[in-house]
Write a structure and sequence with these properties.
The protein has 159 residues and is mainly α. The chain has helices at residues 3-42, 46-53, 63-70, 74-86, 108-130, 134-158; strands at 90-95, 98-106. It folds into two domains: 1-42; 43-158, Winged helix-like DNA-binding domain superfamily/Winged helix DNA-binding domain (Arc Repressor Mutant, subunit A), CATH 1.10.10. The protein has a two-stranded antiparallel ribbon.
Length: 159
Amino acid sequence: MNQFAAQINEELLSYQAQRLQELIAEMIQCCEDRKLFETAKFGLPYAELKCLLLFGGERYLTVKGIAQRLDVAKSRVTKIVKGLVTKGLVKQIDDPHDARIKLISVTPAGEEKSREIAAFQRGLHRQIVLHLSADERKGIFSYLELLRSAMEAVKEQLV
């Protein structure tokens, strides 16, 4: 490869990397806007909303388990759970095997709210998919899988 071709390839690569960064930033901003909308729509801080959705299919969770899944400190989870308890969406009971541990379970009101949130989110994603033709959807999913795999590969190099 000659010097000129290498320079063109480097310029193209730089442009593509910049464009990828911009597109991802725009998608993240769109997701942040959705979070703000959901917070207002469902009357919950986003951390509480996200915590509530963790209970899908789970009978009980612990503060430690929630902290790991949300990737936050246990003290932060304690505050989140307190907010959900106050709203009647979760309840705490003592673990029968270890009194130091509180088991957290979703209440019927919390289950209903969680179903509403999940249905809303599925509806949004359905609307996005409907903006694409069948052929576009096929390509998008294929390329998103490739992008995710590339991102995972780079992430592993960072660790």
